[in-house]
Amino acid sequence: MRRYVIAGNWKMNMTPSAARSFITELAPKVAGKDKCDIVLCVPFVDIAVAAEAAKGTNIKIGAENVHFEAKGAYTGEISAEMLVESGAEYVIVGHSERRQYFAETDETVNLRTKAALAAGLKVILCLGEVKSERLSGITDEVVAMQTKLDLAGISEEQLKNIIIAYEPVWAIGTGLTATPEQADETCGVIRKTIAKIYSEKAAEEMIIQYGGSMNDGNAAELLAKANVDGGLIGGASLVTDKFTAIVDAANA
Questions:
Q1: Which of 64, 97, 129, 167 is catalytic?
Q2: What pLDDT digit, counting tens, does each position of 74-84 carry?
Q3: Residue 107 annotated among the catalytic residues of the structure
Q4: Model confidence, pTM
Q5: What architecture is domain 4-64+122-251?
Q6: Catalytic annotation present for 133
């Protein structure tokens, strides 16, 4: 039985003091809601403070990116070991904004995923089609290819520490949302691809989130779909009541 995972992606929001206040406010609202895993992926500077604030709660802390090298002359980058020591348990890899604005490719996403896994982090691996690909009717081919490339060289055992977040790029930050049927169908394509690469068992156990503008108003309908195992939440993860409502939907 797959568990829901509700993960917030704060993006470039929240100072350390704001992160502490947010988690202090959120923790009692989600206490005891244990039918899903709750994760907040926060800016690098917030990780240590957030991890401390989340101690003793059911909230886990993650990062928003990781470099694929352990150390070296990579100004401005963060290694997996640094994230672990700061208190992160999860890390987002391959978010569409990283691909769009910072030139990440399926090759570097694959390398980052491997580095994160080697350090003991759980990976939220993002993939999804842009609007032109959706309109051209090639969504299935695009997400299947991304799944294969991003997971290249990763074993079925390692797969247990990966969550896939399906992000229709055209629905991120636009207010647009894939219909529950579209989300379910495309998450199903990803699951079928996992079955082909690995096994039916691996596909059945794979947690696949929906990551395109899930919010407190549409979460219940999206989470009701068979292939949607949670959400990677953007804007709604910055408001405790909205994020709590999504957690509630996962616990219904």
A1: 167
A2: 999 999 999 99
A3: no
A4: 0.97
A5: Alpha-Beta Barrel (3.20)
A6: no
